[in-house]
Design a protein that fits this description.
Blueprint (H helix, E strand, L loop, with lengths): L2 H6 L1 H4 L5 H9 L2 E5 L5 H11 L3 E5 L24 H12 L4 E5 L5 H9 L3 E4 L4 H14 L3 E7 L2 E7 L9 H4 L11 H4 L3 H20 L8 E6 L4 E6 L16
Parallel strand pairs: 1-2, 1-4, 2-3, 4-5
Antiparallel strand pairs: 5-6, 6-7, 7-8
Keywords: Nucleotidyltransferase, Transferase
Organism: Pseudoduganella danionis
Protein name: Molybdopterin-synthase adenylyltransferase MoeB
Length: 252
């Protein structure tokens, strides 16, 4: 690291669990953020400020006026612009030293597989089960840790699905892909603005911990937040031995 980097990241370097070695891991790391909206905005902004060397943003939507209530990577002047590009501009203003790749596309299964293969950690900041399951399948197949978050109304949840150990559950163990779950849209149900900031920031925290191999991740646990009463609930999540995604040989 040069002198400017030592200064920029000095508050991380002061932490015994991180130090120069941990910060160098971040500078060399590649994060894939799928979704540049309510969750993806704070998640990507904290990854950028922390110095993750390469951040790839994937989103096929454009900035709408209704997004600005909670999607803090975007501005009024960028209404109508692709969200991925708008977020790229914001991350560049936060930290011009990192590489930010903006992909204005809706990645299909094959494309997700290629993108996940190039990442060290994946953050699922999407809002529909089909994409979440596609991302999960790619992460399991390629052995990449997945940080998953979701928010609707006053309720938020976050967990980590890490296939590298071979013993932890995947997203499909918790929400089986062969069951029907109704996608609930913010446009019809609403969402409490600060809650996406809370969960998105936690996704960044979990991703950074995974990249630096510090602390204990949320793998095997689902944290749920009731934003009205500000109460957290932690649920243990076990691996499903019959999971069609992560059971032995299923992802091959």
């Amino acid at each position: 690291m040069n002198d400017q980097q030592l200064l920029r990241y000095s508050r991380h370097i002061l932490l015994d669990q991180i130090g120069i070695e941990g910060q160098q891991k971040l500078l060399a790391a590649r994060a894939l953020v799928i979704g540049a909206g309510g969750l993806g905005s704070p998640a990507a902004m904290y990854l950028a400020s922390a110095g993750v060397g390469q951040i790839t943003l994937v989103d096929n939507d454009t900035v709408d006026l209704t997004n600005l209530q909670r999607q803090i990577a975007h501005t009024t002047e960028r209404v109508g612009q692709p969200k991925a590009e708008s977020a790229r501009q914001t991350l560049g203003q936060i930290n011009p030293e990192i590489q930010v790749i903006a992909l204005n596309e809706r990645a299909d299964e094959a494309r997700l597989h290629a993108l996940v293969a190039e990442a060290d950690v994946v953050l699922d900041c999407t809002d529909n089960f089909a994409t979440r399951h596609a991302v999960n399948r790619a992460c399991v197949a390629l052995g990449k840790p997945l940080v998953s978050g979701a928010v609707i109304r006053f309720d938020g949840q976050i967990s980590v699905f890490d296939p590298r150990s071979g013993t932890q559950p995947c997203y499909s163990c918790l929400f089986p892909q062969d069951q029907k779950f109704e996608d609930v849209a913010c446009s019809t149900m609403g969402v409490f603005a600060p809650l996406v900031g809370v969960i998105g920031a936690m996704q960044a925290a979990e991703a950074l911990k995974l990249l630096m191999d510090v602390g204990t991740s949320l793998a095997g646990r689902l944290l749920m937040l009731d934003g009205l009463y500000m109460e957290w609930t932690s649920i243990s999540v076990a691996r499903n031995g019959d999971c069609p995604v992560c059971a032995s040989g299923a992802a091959k």
